[in-house]
Write a structure and sequence with these properties.
InterPro entries: AL/BT2_dom. The protein has a single domain, classed as Exo-inulinase, domain 1 (Jelly Rolls, Sandwich), CATH 2.60.120.560. The protein has about 240 residues and is of the alpha+beta class. It is globular. Strands 1, 3, 4, 6, 9, 10, 11 and 13 form an eight-stranded antiparallel beta sheet that branches. The chain has a five-stranded antiparallel beta sheet with strand order 2-5-12-7-8, with no helix packed on it.
Length: about 240
């Protein structure tokens, strides 16, 4: 009897493991709902460094993740923010991130790549990616993980410890923004409204003419000088 119970338990465990969804894949249900992968888990196809034709070699694919290799930069590989080839306006984005100890990065959206702008953050708002405990920004209001950087503080802290994968979602529909971190809604606001203009007017971006002005744009992964990893990047149009 014990052998039968053990065999049943083992079969159940194997079945559970087999049914667990792997990163960088879509289920049949997700495909039917219109989800598409922005990262294939193997290459930087579909991405390029801001204002460049291809992705910088500092962005490597390791163990199914896009990893910003700071050591490669020290050896001469140019860095820079990685941006999608395509632009998006109304969508739901889901992405997993893992930050290094004391690290800083961000998911920047509605990025305009016109030559007049020299960086992604000149136009694109940012969902902060951070080690809140050991990076100096962790002590600054509206600069913590899950915040709409320098604009809106998270409703509650939802970040996981350094070394663990976090799942971030950015939902943007007709200007309305919802940010989620690990299933917790951290921020809700609407672009292009008087309230939005007030948020910008009270931020470090108040004199930046293009900041937060574009409803449609690229999605960017920020090179802030620290090691960071991204995977399971998927999007569906709304």
């Amino acid at each position: 009897m014990k052998k039968v119970i053990l065999a049943a338990a083992l079969t159940a465990l194997i079945g559970t493991s087999a049914s667990a969804q792997q990163p960088n894949t879509l289920t049949a249900k997700e495909k039917k709902a219109g989800w598409k992968l922005l990262f294939d888990g193997k290459t930087t196809k579909g991405w390029h460094t801001f204002h460049k034709d291809a992705a910088s070699p500092a962005w490597k694919v390791e163990d199914g993740a896009l990893v910003l290799d700071q050591a490669a930069k020290k050896n001469g590989a140019p860095g820079g923010d990685l941006v999608t080839n395509d632009e998006f306006e109304n969508y739901e984005l889901s992405i997993q991130w893992k930050i290094s100890e004391g690290g800083n990065s961000g998911i920047i959206f509605s990025v305009n790549e016109s030559p007049e702008y020299k960086a992604t953050y000149e136009t694109g708002p940012e969902m902060q990616v951070l080690d809140d405990d050991k990076h100096p920004d962790g002590k600054i209001i509206k600069h913590n993980a899950g915040d709409l950087y320098d604009l809106v503080k998270s409703s509650q802290k939802a970040v996981k410890p350094v070394g663990e994968w976090n799942t971030a979602q950015i939902i943007k529909k007709n200007g309305h923004l919802t940010l989620k971190l690990n299933g917790v809604t951290t921020v809700e606001t609407t672009m292009g409204t008087p309230e939005w203009d007030a948020l910008i007017a009270n931020s470090k971006f108040k004199t930046w003419k293009g900041f937060g002005k574009y409803q449609k744009g690229h999605i960017a992964l920020q090179d802030h000088g620290d090691v960071v990893s991204y995977r399971d990047i998927k999007i569906r149009q709304l």
